[in-house]
Amino acid sequence: MNAEIPPREAPEDPAAARRLAREARRAEAARRGADRKAKGRDRGKARAFRRFRRRLGGAILPLLAPPVLGLLRRSWRVTYLGQEHRAAVSTPRGFLVALWHGRMLPAIAIHHHQGHSALVSPSDDGALAQVLLAKKGYGVLRGTTSGGGGSAALRAMQQRLEQQPGGAFVITPDGPRGPRHSMNVGLAWLARESGLPILPLGVVSARAWRMRSWDAFNIPKPFSRIAVVYGEPLRVPPEADAWQLEKISATLRAALIETERRGFAQLGLPVDWPSELG
User: Which of 248-253's residues contact partners 24+ apart within 8 Å by CB, and which partners?
Assistant: First the structure.
């Protein structure tokens, strides 16, 4: 039996094929353009919603945060370690306090109305922090020790310390943008210029909400156990050069990590940061 031979197809018109290909490309480009436009509208709506949310939060949070933080503070069970180190620096001249940015909230609540001051970033978050700090009895200086404004902020702090001696000036070396547990020489420079000691401070909690932010910002839960650890003060000699400032900064970073390790050990818990951070 012979196999049937299929009919021969007519040769394709090259001009028609090119025309069809062009039309297909135009249709695809139009589809992509429509997708981009739709995504742009979606992004615009998302940006508008974020702006609205920030403005709403900026209006409500300053009113709610201080009393809510006060209620939380009264429920916490706080243990203090290393109080002899704090006593050693509590002189009429004052001292500097270093703690990590992510532990700022419980530290503010626990050390309220003690004549302390704090450096606050000029961001929207900093505006909220300024209101909260003022309500808790802190003096506030706006600025940042990172980026181009670092030198100006440090000199402004130096002037504030000269004009208003006493109390403590609280600085978060890894703020306001991180990376977490990072350290530059700014705080060591300020200690050298002011002649004030640096008190490492660790504030850790057994139960906390941890934000999905670069610093894993901690908000201790109601009735949480908290350990407040004061480390051994560091003093920077007035003749310290750039190399010595780097070395002292590395020592301070290690001291801050150690205060938090002691705090978690007191609570019977492992540390809450990745091993590569120290």
Answer: 248/188, 248/191, 249/183, 249/184, 249/185, 249/187, 249/188, 250/183, 252/98, 252/173, 252/183, 252/187, 252/188, 252/198, 252/200, 253/173, 253/181, 253/183, 253/278
Query: Does residue 11 lie within any of the structural domains?
Result: no
Per the structure, the complete domain to which residue 100 belongs is given by 76-277
Residues 158-167: tens digit of each pLDDT: 777 777 777 7
Residue among 172, 168, 169, 170 at smallest CA distance from 181: 172
- Beta-sheet strands, E only, within 174-270: 198-205, 208-210, 218-220, 225-230
d(CA 89, CA 72): 28
pLDDT at 149 over 60: no
Measured at the CA of 119, the angle between CA 189 and CA 68, to 5 degrees, comes to 145
pLDDT in tens, 190-224: 899 889 999 999 999 999 999 999 999 999 999 99
- Reading the block at residue 156, the tokens are 């402004």
Angle at which helix 186-194 crosses helix 242-267, to 10 degrees, equals 110
User: What residue type is assigned to position 221 of the chain?
Assistant: K
**pLDDT bucket at 39, cuts 50 / 70 / 90:** low
Instruction: Evaluate whether residue 6 is within a structural domain.
Output: no
DSSP 121-154: -SSHHHHHHHHHHHHTT-EEEE--SSGGGHHHHH
pLDDT tier at 128, thresholds 50, 70, 90: confident
User: Quick check: is 61 in a domain?
Assistant: yes
